[in-house]
Design brief:
The protein has helices spanning 2-31, 34-74, 92-108, 113-125, 129-146. The protein is mainly α and 147 residues long. Helix 1 runs antiparallel to helix 2 (34-74), helix 3 packs antiparallel against helix 4 (113-125) and helix 4 runs antiparallel to helix 5 (129-146). The longest helix is centred in the middle third of the chain and has 41 residues, at 34-74. The chain is elongated. The protein starts with a helix and ends with a helix. This is Tetratricopeptide repeat protein. It comes from Actinospica acidiphila. InterPro entries: TPR-like_helical_dom_sf.
């Protein structure tokens, strides 16, 4: 729940920022000189890119949560039995052991979105966020084609 609140708060702050930047771009365009119109258009591009990026990330999070709920209903969510450091972080060796199991599972069933989902969780536990995201995107794509 804490992550959802953080995400919603960050998204709200970004939307406010996009509105402020967009209004500045409009003011620059209204000034009417060649220089201010050029800057105004350039400034308006930033919120457009930001809104697109925020939308894509929100879709990703929503789709990943949907897969997690479906996997939970099936009883297939990975069990978190990883060793933890005193700080609460996952022990790297423990995460690597689980990762090896998940990787083998995914290699045995490369078209199963469930194995890709569990692999994404293992990548995340091993602190490899870019690969975790790619594995989750693969799980989402496989789930969409299975429907």
């Amino acid at each position: 729940m804490r992550a959802k609140i953080s995400y919603a708060l960050t998204a709200a702050v970004l939307v406010v920022y996009f509105v402020l930047v967009g209004s500045r771009g409009v003011l620059l365009i209204k000034a009417g000189t060649l220089l201010t119109v050029t800057f105004g258009v350039a400034v308006l591009i930033l919120p457009v890119i930001g809104v697109w990026f925020l939308w894509k990330n929100t879709q990703f999070v929503r789709d990943a949560n949907r897969l997690a709920a479906e996997l939970d209903a099936e009883g297939g969510l990975p069990v978190d039995n990883l060793r933890r450091l005193p700080s609460g972080r996952v022990d790297r060796e423990s995460a690597d052991e689980v990762f090896a199991l998940r990787k083998a599972e995914t290699e045995d069933a490369p078209d199963d979105w469930r194995s890709w989902f569990r692999l994404a969780v293992a990548y995340h536990d091993a602190r490899d966020t870019p690969r975790a995201r790619k594995a989750m995107q693969r799980a989402i794509a496989l789930r969409k084609t299975a429907s």
